Amino acid sequence: MTGGKLTEPTVSQTDVVVESIRQMIIDGRLRPGGRLPVENDLAAALGVSRTPLREGVRALSMMGILETRRGDGTYVTKLDPTMLLAPLGFVVDLQDGSATHHLHAVRRILETEAAAAAALHISSPSLEAAAELLRHNEAELALAEPNHETVIENDIAFHRIIAEAGGNPVLAALVAALGGRTMRDRLRRSISQPGADETAHREHLSILAALTAQDPDRARTRMAAHLFTVEDYLVEQATDAG
Fold first, then answer.
1. Nearest C-alpha neighbor of 227 from the set 173, 155, 148
2. Which of 71, 69, 39 is nearest to 56 (CA)?
3. Based on the number of CB atoms within 10 Å of its own CB, is 68 exposed (0-12), middle (13-18) or buried (19 or more)?
4. In sequence order, which residues have a C-beta less than 8 Å from that of residue 123 and are 6 or more positions away?
5. 9, burial (CB in 10 Å: exposed 0-12, middle 13-18, buried 19+)
6. What is the pLDDT of residues 5-29, one digit of tens each?
7. Which of 73, 75, 216, 230 could serve as a FRET partner for 122 with CA atoms 20 to 30 Å apart?
8. pLDDT confidence tier of residue 215, bands split at 50, 70 and 90
9. d(CA 160, CA 163)
């Protein structure tokens, strides 16, 4: 506040660049795959100097919105949801352990609907790929000392197939973005809770059966039951830590 008057918050030129280009894409003046005007022309059009223009372009490139091709200029990407939502995974990874069960609850909500959609759309090759992953896990769990990381990696791949099979790339990208944090939690449960891997394997088999039967209600219910077992474990951990 200066002289009793409220001062307007300053907006950096870099922010002006980011917001202006974002609006140009929203308005359709820039389309996926389209080339941005040359640097001098764009800077003049936005009323900024070249340095903040470059900083804004760099920021948008890190978000997956723009890509700079050496010697060819800067282009709008295809705006693929998987690429655009990838930074969400970074944000998720930055959360402390107290938020873990909340993140998993979001994952459960998303994946139960992804399973229902997959039951209606999953292809035979995807069903076979999912079944093959479960066969690998069954063999791994039969060993005297199974590799927990291998089991969890197959678990994640199984869930990825289901998320992608529903035909909604945004939903699949959101599920993938939550995978980093929940993978560590699942691995901890796998190691510390006897029988956890075997229980998860049985639940995966029941989910696969529902998908094979093209039964969305059973797929949704069985996926929810499966994810609730993990969520219950995380809630218990959070309670013990508190």
1. 155
2. 39
3. middle
4. 165
5. exposed
6. 554 556 789 999 999 999 999 999 9
7. 230
8. very high
9. 5
